[in-house]
Amino acid sequence: MKKDRRSRKEIRLTRTITIRVILLLASCCVFFSCRGKENAPEPEEQIVFEEQAQAESEQKAEEQTAAVAAESSGAQVSYQVQRPLSSLSGLSRRLPGYGVNVQEIDPVNYDNPDLEILRQMGAEQYIISYFAGEQFYKSGDYDKALAEYSAAINGNSNFTEALVSRGNAWMKKREYSRAIDDYNRAIRLDGGRAELYNYRGFARTERREMNLAIEDFSRAIALNGNYTDALINRSHAYYQTGNYDKVIEDCDRVIRLEPLNAVIWNRRGSAWYRKEDDDRAIRDFTEAIRIRGDYAVAFFNRGNALYNKKEYDRAMADLNRTLAINPSFAAAYTVRGNIFSLLGNNESAALDFAAAQRLERH
Predict the structure, then answer these.
(1) Which residues contact 134 (CB under 8 A, 6 or more apart)?
(2) What whole-number distance in Å separates Cα of residue 277 and Cα of residue 269?
(3) Distance of alpha carbon 141 from alpha carbon 355, whole angstroms
(4) What is the pLDDT of residues 43-66, one digit of tens each?
(5) Domains of the chain with CATH codes
(6) 96-123 confidence digits (pLDDT tens)
(7) How many Cβ atoms from other residues are within 10 Å of residue 64's Cβ?
(8) CA dihedral 308, 313, 314, 317 (to 10 degrees)
(9) pTM of the entire structure?
């Protein structure tokens, strides 16, 4: 009987120690998880916000601003959010799914920790609030996520992960100044994390603060030379400032890391186009199309470059393909109308110009 009692005491003691160890590991993971996350490849951004979502977002933005060279607009965040963050934009990846910045807190239930179990384990309230915020973030309820992240920060003002996640939630709500404020605080606490500069740079890009954004992306790249999302974002910022040589340099680096990134082939082609090198531009647009056969912007860009070279039949074929993929591509109607005019088909030209004007009004 005494042996039985001793055995039960030992079991209870073992359980108590196990719970405390798990709780300790949970707390540690909250603070240190992001350091290893940058190395794990994310489904594209998470950019890198997720690679596929990010690529579609960039293409939509590009199509809206495609008038002449139609450079692929829009940075991506390593929503690696990173793709997110690499959501933001992976934040890498893109604000591919950016927001959830912690590793598993236990081997059983990492993606969706049971908050009641955390309470029973005696977890600090600020940790519980943080995980509640992550759950609201993943469900798309950013207002409730913000409230929980704020509660976590009020409970621990040095809680870097909560500051980063709240910054990401502000990004989702397009509150870029508030996002930058949170990223600033996170950087002061842990300035060695490349993704924080990428996130802040993305927010600055959205505020059209391109020079400051370039500084942030450059810091991220200095910390991680293979940080694809930051390179992609910096190439976009360079494009916006007209520094096409730098765009090409960054695109070269991205292509070495991600040779199947159609957006970057298109962006480099756009830079060659701006430098009036139509042949190199056409080669890059062709590669973007080879990778992604429904890439309307790349078809338009190649058609535009062929139009400059007076290769009207080939240009017309690309513009027709552009409009088959995206019938609302106003700039494609304009360029095709110009070709119809040059070929003497004034009736078709007038129809295309009218279509372009109608779409631009909307």
Answers:
(1) 99, 100, 102, 145, 165
(2) 9
(3) 39
(4) 222 222 223 334 444 444 343 333
(5) 1-225 (1.25.40.10)
(6) 233 333 333 333 334 566 777 767 666 7
(7) 15
(8) 120
(9) 0.71
